Amino acid sequence: MACPMRARQIRFIWGQAMRTSFRYLSMLAVCLTLLVPVWLLAQTPQPWRDQGVIHLANSPYAKLHTIPVHAVTIRDGFWAQRRKTAVEKSIPSIWKLIEEHGYVDNFRRLSKGKDVPRKGPVFTDTDPYKWIEGVAMFLQSGDRPELRAIAEQTIDEIIAVQEPSGYLATQFHGQPLAEGRVVALKDRLTPAVLDWGHEDYCLGHMLQSAIAYYRATGETRFLDAAARFADYIARDFGPEKKPFLAGHPVVEMGLIELYRTTGQRRYLDLAAYILNGDQRIDRPLQRVIYTFSGIPFTERTHMQGHAVRAMYACSGATDYYLETGDQKYWATLENLWRDTVNTKMYITGGLGARWEGEAFGDAYELPNSRSYSETCAAIGGMMWNWRMLAASGDARFTDVMERMLYNAVNVGMSLDGTLYCYANPLESPGRTDPNRHSKEGTTRNPWYDVLCCPPNIERTLGALPGYMYSTSKDGLYVHLYDNSLLDWHLEDGSGLKVEQKTNYPWEGTVELTVTPAKKKEFTVYLRIPGWASGAKVQVGGKTLEQSVKPGEYLPIRRRWEPGDRVRLDLDMAPQLVTANPQVAEDFGKVALQRGPLVYCLEQNDQSGIEELSEVAIPMGKKSTEGFQTEFREGLLGGVEVVRHRGIAYEKAASEGALYRPVGFEQKKVGRDVELTFIPYYAWANREPSPMRVWVPYVPAGTK
Amino acid sequence: MACPMRARQIRFIWGQAMRTSFRYLSMLAVCLTLLVPVWLLAQTPQPWRDQGVIHLANSPYAKLHTIPVHAVTIRDGFWAQRRKTAVEKSIPSIWKLIEEHGYVDNFRRLSKGKDVPRKGPVFTDTDPYKWIEGVAMFLQSGDRPELRAIAEQTIDEIIAVQEPSGYLATQFHGQPLAEGRVVALKDRLTPAVLDWGHEDYCLGHMLQSAIAYYRATGETRFLDAAARFADYIARDFGPEKKPFLAGHPVVEMGLIELYRTTGQRRYLDLAAYILNGDQRIDRPLQRVIYTFSGIPFTERTHMQGHAVRAMYACSGATDYYLETGDQKYWATLENLWRDTVNTKMYITGGLGARWEGEAFGDAYELPNSRSYSETCAAIGGMMWNWRMLAASGDARFTDVMERMLYNAVNVGMSLDGTLYCYANPLESPGRTDPNRHSKEGTTRNPWYDVLCCPPNIERTLGALPGYMYSTSKDGLYVHLYDNSLLDWHLEDGSGLKVEQKTNYPWEGTVELTVTPAKKKEFTVYLRIPGWASGAKVQVGGKTLEQSVKPGEYLPIRRRWEPGDRVRLDLDMAPQLVTANPQVAEDFGKVALQRGPLVYCLEQNDQSGIEELSEVAIPMGKKSTEGFQTEFREGLLGGVEVVRHRGIAYEKAASEGALYRPVGFEQKKVGRDVELTFIPYYAWANREPSPMRVWVPYVPAGTK
Fold first, then answer.
1. B235/B203 Cα distance (integer angstroms)
2. Which residues, 6+ apart, have CB-to-CB distance to A309 below 8 Å?
3. Which residues 370-409 in chain B show a CB within 8 A of chain A?
């Protein structure tokens, strides 16, 4: 029986339901209309977004895989400050100087007919390339997007110069070079010209820059242009084609990264050919040594020659190993690495003992005042060790990389980001002297005609987030410590966040919060630095029972839950370090290290000491005794200074006769003084002042 | 009334007297006929016979005056052996090699149209020049007269190339140089070419050689040719004429010696102009530093640049002072000398710390293994100190000269006189390594394309007798000690012989017999070497009451009688010497010196020591304690070896990590060993073996 009241009620309810549904459906339709394109966009493959500093996802012999730069956000702390300086001060100011010195005009004069002579050395093209690469690295982090416009314009200027063949290098167009020399068009890319002409070097840096820019933006214009140049070389040069030569290695790395980015095997093959040296080209042994090219890479037995060339060649060779697993390469690389680290590396990680040829010296030839230690060589050293680490997962490579990063690389840019070191001595009279420290006669300069170092620092600091972690099949490697957030995933795709809270390198405690998207068993490989004896690790508030060994990755395998906490305590007590007694200039001396930082004495910080060359440090039984440390906020951008008792001798001891019978020496008596050490990277940021890393020691109790 | 008997008698006597007189008169006539030409010959001025290594008889600012080379006969002993080797082995073998390498053909191709390309670097002409100079020095001593024939022939070959203008240099005749470069005739002697082309250097050595040859033979052909070249320069170049430049100083010395030899003022003026630098020529600062030329000599404030160039320039400048007394020159020379001797000289007297530019380094930059110390630089140093000594009579210059002669110069020629050092390290791994010790990769080589050193040693050893004494207004200076006979005269012309009997430098006793032609009061200035504390002097068997100070000339003024005896006793106890603590590589180390000889450890002489880099010397309170010395006849041509207790550490200490916390170092324990030192000059005369001059020391009692 129908009840009119009920029917009305039902009609009402139905109608209302229909209206409500319609409203919701309309809203749904609107939502879908808006969301689908976003969803579709998200589904478009964007491989560039996930590629790291080097892209190892498909490299069969990479044990570790890089994470993209954007996956890590570096938060307030040691490196945030340096990166901010790089992107806000260094990058804009260097750009201005590159323009002022005509290094972009070198492109415009060819593309736009701008009526200016070519400026600078043959390899100036690489300065805008490396600068763009630096910008691209910061863009990958989402920093300073407004820099992209300058990069875009510059890329236009660059591409406009490319010839139909693909050739792209401004130095050889049948017109005079800055020094008046003319290279005929027909002589381009001939072995005699490649030996010094840097066309190969320009291609290498162009590839690295274009790939970094692609990884930042997804844009392929620059990448395509660089690939066209590479294609030209791959087509016309090689075995049974024209001979090619790396006069300044870097093209090997560039080509293999292009192979990784495009999957085109010909680039790997071309790199292999170059690494192997073309035996049809006959060059003097000295050039083969100097350029670190021209003979099969696997025939190298000693680290030698121009340090930057050697580091780039070794980096390229390691890239080749990562793709091919060629054991002869690995054996050579291991041997060269041991030779370098055991006999030819400064305590700062600096490489290259000789001003002559900016080159490695003999074993144990490591002069301090005359050290060359070009900033770029240490950067090349980081690149190489990063690749060796990827191949092996071995923490000794990370130790060296960290040593270079905090010291020999970091010292290269002033605290305000506008002055740069080219050579990095470990001892300095502080005076201006055109024979030492830099071609310009001062330690730090705003500009060098050979500009390689400043943009090299920029791209390194830009890329830094990408160096903090790697993934492996079974988990995550933590390489470097600083306040940061990793937002990435394990290799099976499951999401993972890791937050680091620390005041490293000033303090030794690092708190990590591990947050997998869901509970999951995997391994966190926590790096215990080689210098960190007695490191302690807690997981979830409990001290780990595993033994914690310095110089290794500590594998923490467990079922991780969101919010799990790991606490790492590194002993930051200052340490005195000696060198192998075969290092003639360090004999009887010690250096001070605290955590990853090498310290130095700068005259500015001492009082009552007339002459830095006349101090000694009395040494107790333990090398970590007798130090006071103090963080000085206002000093050198904020640094932990280290103080220790010292002895200052009369200046007279260092005056007068150069050679004297021994009796004289034994009579000398010193006064007690306090020595104040600052981190080496921060020296030469005040008025010029003497500096030294290695300080003579005397037995405790000596006067 | 006449008595017939008496008249007969008278006639008879008269007749007999007449006959006798006639006989005697005839004999007299015959004698006169025979003797007059001899007498006349003796009366012909032969100034060349009395001229020393440099001719200072008329130099107004020379306090001391040289004696001719022939005035001293060096008898059996230390230097006789080396001089014999030089003249019998080195001079003939180097001549053969000069010919084989086409350095005389470089003349013949121009004069005789010999169809061969020009060989070697631009400055090869100076090699025959210096070789002839070496021969001339030995000819002055009357040694090996048969060498004169080769010298004569070569002089013919040289003179035949001289152009009517006077120009004489084989490198620039519009034909390609060895490296393919061509210098147009019009570009000869232009500043741009003089900067590197060595035309000035060829003239300088030609002058020195021709003057030495004139002093040996009285022949003027070669001298006239050299003077014609100098006349051409003096006529066309100078202020208000064409600008001239010493790209490699030596011409200053050559021109001033030509002035001394000919009395022609224009040569001194030309030298003054060159020493002053022509401000019309604009050159980069680095070239001005490197060449030690181009700015007023008196504006130099530091010893710097190419060491040989610097030494030759300073020698020329001292020559200029000796002629003019220009006090600005003297002040500059004194300042440069102090800078060199107090901050830039090796203990061996070696000069030039850097392989880069064969150059002086900064103050206290004195690496041992990488020391350059070119043999020629030490020879240049001897030349300079010899001139400073002449100007001042100050024994500090002789001390430096002796140090150089016995060590840095003497090491340059092997014991057998057929192998030469170019660079002279103070430490060596003994291995062949193309990066060190010599351009050829071995310490000693029979030949260098840049041949400067071997003939430079030859001319120095040839001239050595001329360095042993000088005269002054009031007497005689005795500079060097060795078995020898001086047969000369005082400055007033009265004859003087001095005989030396000694076994110096192996023993410290020197017996001098002073024989003036007649009794005469004058001063004998006896050099007391700077290293010889406690030296004792006896005259006529009685100990001298004057105080005997090391590093000074001891003036012995008395009425000398023929046969007067002087006995000098020098303490030859071995001494340990330290370096100024600012010399980074010598810090904590000692060197061993005995008399004028610097010693070294060569691995060959040690037993039970695995690694020379791992030894130390325990040092007592006195630096002369704990030595045993022994003359070994059969070793290295006969040398006094010195033995001392040493400590050898496990080789492990120099293996493994380059840098390590201090604790490690303190644990090392050594074994007692005996260290055997040999004179530095004698090293590298056996199979290649590690060597070191500076040895770490530890307090006595250390293990």
1. 15
2. A248, A249, A290, A291, A292, A293
3. 370
Q: How far is B424 from chain A (nearest CA, A)?
A: 17
Residue B385 carries which side chain, given as an amino acid letter?
A: N
Peptide bond into A505 cis (omega under 30): yes
Q: What is the pLDDT of residues B591-642, one digit of tens each?
A: 999 999 999 999 999 988 888 888 999 877 666 778 999 999 999 999 999 9
B522 CB-near residues (< 8 Å, 6+ apart) = B474, B475, B476, B490, B516, B557, B560
| Residue-wise pLDDT tens digits, B555-566 | 999 999 999 999
DSSP assignment, residue A614?
A: G
> What's the rounded mean pLDDT across residues A530-548?
94
Indicate where chain B has its CATH 2.60.40 domain(s).
484-569
Tokens at residue A645, please? 């008792």
Q: Is A29 helix (H, G, I), strand (E, B) or coil?
A: helix
What ipTM was predicted for this assembly?
0.85
A625 has a chain B CB within 8 A of its CB: no
Locate CATH 1.50.10.10 in chain B. 65-467
CB contact under 8 A, B658 and A342: yes
Give me the residues of B, 279-298, that contact A with CB < 8 A.
285-286, 289
Tokens of A257: 């990264």
Contact A438, A419 (CB under 8 A): no
DSSP H stretches of helix in B86-186 = 91-100, 105-111, 126-140, 147-159
Tokens of A207: 């590839």
- Report residue B583 as tokens: 């010399």
Which of these, B300, B479, B477, lies nearest to B382 by C-alpha position?
Answer: B479
Q: Structure tokens of A404?
A: 């270079």
The Cα B359–Cα B290 span in angstroms is: 8
Of B369, B619, B665, the CB nearest to A365: B369
Cβ–Cβ contact B80 with A under 8 A? no
The listed CATH number (2.60.40, 3.20.20, 1.10.287, 2.130.10) that belongs to domain A484-569: 2.60.40
Predicted confidence at residue A89, as pLDDT, reads 98
User: Cα distance from B644 to chain A (closest Cα, Å)?
Assistant: 15
Preferred mutation among A662, A680, A692 to probe B, highest tally of B CBs within 10 A: A662
The pTM for the full model equals 0.87
3-state helix, strand, coil in chain A (%, to 5): 40, 20, 40
Asked if B420 and B375 count as a contact pair (C-beta separation under 8 A), the reply is yes
φ and ψ at residue A538, rounded to 5 degrees = -115, 140
Q: Give every strand in the sheet of B65-66, ordered side by side.
A: B65-66, B469-472, B475-478, B520-528, B552-560
Strands A639-649 and A670-679: antiparallel
For chain B, the 3-state helix, strand and coil shares in percent, each to the nearest 5, are 40, 20, 40
* Fold category of B65-467 in CATH: Glycosyltransferase (1.50.10)
Strands B639-649 and B615-619: antiparallel
Among A63-67, A409-413, A418-422, which is the least confidently predicted range?
A418-422
Q: How far is CA B417 from CA B78, B357, B440, in A?
A: 15, 28, 18
Average pLDDT, chain B: 92
Task: Please give the Cα distance from B540 to B563 (Å, whole number).
Answer: 9
Residue of A435, A592, A625 to mutate, testing the B interface (most B Cβ within 10 Å of its Cβ): A435
Three-class SS of residue A567?
Answer: strand
Give the separation between CA B553 and CA B547, rounded to whole angstroms. Answer: 11
Give the chain A residue nearest B699 (alpha carbons): A666
Q: A243 forms bridges with which residues in the sheet? A: none
**In contact, B582 and B364? CB cutoff 8 Å:** yes
Alpha carbons within 13 angstroms on the beta-carbon side of residue B134 total 29
